[in-house]
Design brief:
It is a single chain. This protein is of the alpha/beta class. The protein has one domain: Rossmann fold (3-Layer(aba) Sandwich). Helix content is 40%, strand content 15%. The protein has 10 helices and 7 strands. It has a 7-stranded parallel beta sheet with strand order 3-2-1-4-5-6-7, with helices on both faces. Helix 1 crosses helix 8 and helix 3 runs parallel beside helix 5. The radius of gyration is 17 Å and the shape is globular. Bound molecules: nicotinamide-adenine-dinucleotide. Nicotinamide-adenine-dinucleotide binds next to helix 1, helix 3 and strand 5.
Length: 257
């Protein structure tokens, strides 16, 4: 895709969003953000909610590629009041606005939680064609998202890339959880690798019409997710490994001195 095109990132102020903004801007892409909060490092951003269809439609004007990250990013206590409006209704508004605006590529942030059992028990690596074993309600909303992504690729001819992501920690507590367990370290996704992954997804050849790919950093012990499709289709290969990049979250290298 040409660098003259416009990439909209929903959830641009979040952990993964800021990483994607940074890498795409560094590569010379035109980037617009959409989030409930201001996006650091971007001049072109909209503040609003994906639950507001009109606000999403305004942000979508002129957009050629969409990275959809805005969501409730894990299970929470309020399914009806939080997961449904954000991950289901908001998704609907974003997808329909993208279709109406003529967006050519949509990249959807799904989760390794789609393969919750197999990423623990194997067989490894988990492949996109393996049956899903979703963790709980949040993962089920991502299944819904993957389903409508497929429909959009088939029905509307939009290039849709589903990105099942490893664990890019948002907080120090999450960094500590990852540090404490080997299998979490294997699925760690550094902010730097996450940024490069989404930039590669934007830049992937137009021939990629529908794909499900995994995004994780290099596994210290056991490669739990199959990175071959991301390499073949997007040209993405992780450069980092736990704990590289955690300083983005903690403010210092890990383990801290
Ligand atoms: N970080 C991970 O380990 C991980 C793993 C798998 C999947 N994901 C997915 O990646 C995406 C980004 O996750 P993250 O870790 O950056 O989360 P995050 O919470 O850091 O960022 C999400 C951003 O979306 C915004 N947002 C939430 N609801 C919104 C709404 N209604 N309207 C507008 N903006 C809204 C938030 O303000 C926030 O800035 C999510 O879809 C998440 O489910 C993340």
């Amino acid at each position: 895709m040409s660098k003259a095109e416009l990439v909209l990132i929903t959830g641009s102020a979040g952990r993964v969003g800021q990483a994607a903004v940074k890498e795409l801007c560094a590569r010379g892409h035109r980037v617009r953000g959409f989030d409930r909060a201001a996006t650091p490092g971007l001049e072109d951003f909209f503040i609003g909610s994906i639950q507001d269809a009109a606000a999403v439609q305004r942000a979508m004007a002129g957009v050629t590629s969409l990275i959809h990250l805005a969501a409730t990013p894990d299970d929470c206590d309020d399914f009806a009041g939080d997961l449904v409006p954000n991950n289901i209704l908001g998704l609907h508004h974003v997808m329909e606005a993208a279709r109406a605006a003529g967006v050519r590529r949509i990249i959807l942030a799904s989760s390794g939680q789609m393969n919750d059992t197999q990423q623990v028990t194997g067989p490894f690596p988990v492949r996109a064609e393996d049956p899903v074993t979703p963790r709980y309600w949040y993962a089920a909303t991502k299944m819904f998202m993957e389903s409508i992504g497929y429909s959009f690729a088939q029905r509307h001819g939009i290039s849709v890339i589903v990105a099942r992501l490893g664990w890019c920690p948002r907080t120090r507590a999450q960094v500590e959880e990852i540090a404490a367990e080997e299998r979490f370290r294997d699925v760690y996704f550094s902010p730097g690798d996450a940024g490069r992954f989404f930039a590669c997804a934007v830049e992937a050849p137009t021939e990629v019409k529908w794909a499900v790919v995994y995004g994780v950093s290099r596994a210290p012990k056991q490669a739990r997710f199959d990175l071959e499709p991301a390499k073949r289709l997007l040209g993405f290969e992780p450069r980092e490994q736990w704990p590289q990049g955690v300083e983005v979250v903690t403010g210092a290298k890990w383990p801290e001195a």
